[in-house]
Amino acid sequence: MTKNLLNIIKNYDKKIKFIFAGSSLMFQKKNGIVNEKSKFKQSNFYSKYKIHSHKLLIKFKEKYNLNASTVILFNHDSIYRNKKFLLPRIVQYLKKKNLKKINEINKENIYGDFSHAEDICNGILRLVELRKMPDKLILSSSKLTSINKLIKYGTSFFKIKVKLQKPNRIPKKLLIGNNNLAKKILHWKTKKNAFLAFKEILKNS
């Protein structure tokens, strides 16, 4: 599908700007901070597809002078997010007072680089407005969010009395995206955060 889209641009209108949605799962590194220079390594079919598509994009870009970019995305949420994803799923568990599922997620002690989707969309819009787009660009919050803190807020919002297990420490293996390049070339900054996205999902549930 990626190849078909690139071929259409090549054959019909090279002025079209093409953005491929990359993923943090593309990186070889699984812990610490990554940037646009960090190496890729496939670990499953999903990351293989993403990496292969990016390489294909670069080949087309160089050979046919296309204006294309891979935007590497981390977690991002909003009220429009599919209900199968983590934050909307947590809200549904809270709404139904499914204490078993809430405790299961709480015990996982999840931390991650979570953003508000509105910030990500704003970054993509600014990227499209560039005369020439970079080969790849990270859009992320560049910080860690504790899912357990969101759960705690959610239990208070729905007035659920539940004793949540307190995790001992922040997990060691955590990946954070460095968004400095996006800030520099797009004059972009995050205005919202995952906590605000979670509150909006709660209010719209």
Concise synopsis of the structure shown:
Helices cover 44% and strands 17% of the residues. With 205 residues, the chain is α/β, with parallel strands linked by helices.
Helical residue percent band: 40-55%
Low-pLDDT stretches = none
Q: What is the CA-atom radius of gyration, in angstroms? A: 19 Å
Largest sheet: 3 strands, parallel
Strand-residue proportion: 15-25%
Spatial arrangement of strands, main beta sheet? 1-3-7
Number of helices: 8
CATH architecture: 3-Layer(aba) Sandwich
How is this structure best described in words?
There is one protein chain. The protein has 205 residues and is of the alpha/beta class. It has a single domain (2-203), classed as NAD(P)-binding Rossmann-like Domain (Rossmann fold, 3-Layer(aba) Sandwich), CATH 3.40.50.720. Helices cover 44% and strands 17% of the residues. The protein has eight helices and nine strands. It has helices at 2-12, 45-64, 86-95, 99-108, 117-128, 147-157, 180-186, 194-203; strands spanning 17-23, 32-34, 67-73, 75-77, 111-112, 114-116, 136-139, 145-146, 175-177. The protein has a three-stranded parallel beta sheet with strand order 1-3-7, with helices on both faces. Helix 1 packs parallel to helix 2 (45-64) and helix 3 (86-95) runs parallel beside helix 6. The model has no long low-confidence stretch (mean pLDDT 95).
